[in-house]
Amino acid sequence: xxxxxDSYYRALEQQVLTYKxxxxxxxxxxxxxxxxxxxxxSGRIFVSDERMKAFTGEDIYVRAELVPMLEKAxxxxxxxxxxxxxxxxxxxxxxxxxxxxxxAHKARVLERFPSLSGDELYETIHRFSAVPEVAGxxxxxxxxxxxVDKDGERVDTGTAVVEYSDDTYVFSPFISRTAWRNRQxxxxxxxxxxxxxxxxxxxxxxxxDREWAFYYSQPKAFFTQLRFKSVDD
Length: 233
Known about the structure:
two-stranded antiparallel sheet; five-stranded mixed sheet; 9 helices; 38% helix
């Protein structure tokens, strides 16, 4: 049985975008501003990363184009589940945090597989911590998002948000029928609004970054990585 599970996971992983694929995408920054979701988004937000409070306080920031898209996704959800709402738990991630996250995961990978190097090493790390130069969150074009009920409790989606496990694949067959359905509702709402899904993580969606450009066969991405700060030192 464990071999069957492993084969399913391997098949799912083969469909996830690789570092090498993303690195081929050209980026032409369009200069879009970063905006506060607390001030512009009618859904919910929750700052899930304490490290980001040094840069954006108790707020979440994204590129301006994402706000009307998030509103459209929320409207679609409300037609399906009037009592539920979208909750953004991550938007922009400071590039320094992405680099630290990548390096920490790199150390863990090398401890387990000391012979890995080059592209093989980067691809192994990239599965759970994006290589900074292609990562979506530091561009302000990616969001981590979930559905919550009227009490603000996250609906069942099989795993926690930002959980390092194989069942974070959107199409993992080893989650409950309810969790599967809820994932597909979230995915459908976000795609309808114009976001690109990342099927390695059911909660991750983007617009304007390399993942979006690759998913929709666009000639180039238009958001690059930033070192943005909105709060005083």
